[in-house]
Amino acid sequence: MTVLVTGGAGYIGSHIVRAFRLAGLDCVVVDDFSSGHREFVPDDVVLIDSNILDTAVVAKAMVEHRVEAVVHLAGFKYAGVSVQRPLHTYEQNVQGTVSLLQAMHEADVDKVVFSSSAAVYGTPDVELVTEATATAPESPYGESKLIGEWLLRDSARAFPLHHTSLRYFNVVGSAVPDLYDTSPHNLFPLVIEALLEGRTPRINGNDYPTPDGTCVRDYIHVADLADAHVVAAQKLLAGETLEPVYNLGSGDGVSVREIMTAVAEATGIAFEPEIADRRPGDPARIVASGELASRDLDWTMRHSVAEMVKSAWDARQAHAG
Known about the structure:
Keywords: Carbohydrate metabolism, Isomerase, NAD. Its EC number is 5.1.3.2. This is UDP-glucose 4-epimerase. Pfam families: Epimerase. This protein has helices spanning 11-22, 55-64, 79-84, 86-107, 140-158, 187-196, 222-237, 256-267, 291-297, 305-317; strands at 2-6, 26-31, 46-49, 67-72, 111-115, 162-167, 170-172, 202-204, 216-217, 219-221, 245-247, 254-255, 274-276. It is an alpha/beta fold. It starts with a strand and ends with a helix.
């Protein structure tokens, strides 16, 4: 069986490709390298240099390589930047998903796992987010992910389409030394790059209504996330019906200050983080329950925070210099 992974040259996508290969499934990657890296894709994996907006190229790839399912990760993933670039965000994430679904329809591929986001919830007013929590996205990015879920739902009403969407928030760590997070906006790479450059990492706000005053977030290891995508795709390929959405959450948040402490311990670099102003729109706490995904997708947190931090540091160190 062959699975098409859009955005498969990115940090998360490349981990998912490796996980599929370990599970014995072949992959085809479509990526335009706007944020992905050619070197993240194994040499023996078919790699197509294209944006998913090119419907004809994607449909042709599905037919030529006998693709039976799609894992859709390609898109513009920077929530903060999406506020300044709403049209670009909607083009890449909404129109891109329309194009992909059209290509799937043309190629008679009827199974898709969609990479959604906890950003669809905005600032929830509950301690623990579940799939029943109201969606209220606060950025074009979050809105585009919710629209993506709607597109899958509505397409499934019009033609055969078996689908599920996985919502997650802070994906961290590395499963292998040659893959690491290169995002200029995520906490882990921001902290690690600061330490590598001799700068002091920064906390944005320490006056939130949380135990230590810093934001509490849901951090999950990229390897655990990748495994959940593989299970979801395998179940769809086996003809099983999945829920339309699943949260991949820890159920137990970690504060930004606790992450800083874990980084200092993992790296052996003692530091006291600088305190900066809050960033607009940062909620005090977002933590999701993974109970439903645990029931259906064998979802579990197999890595501790210490392991997440150490794996991220070791992978980045392997590419330093």
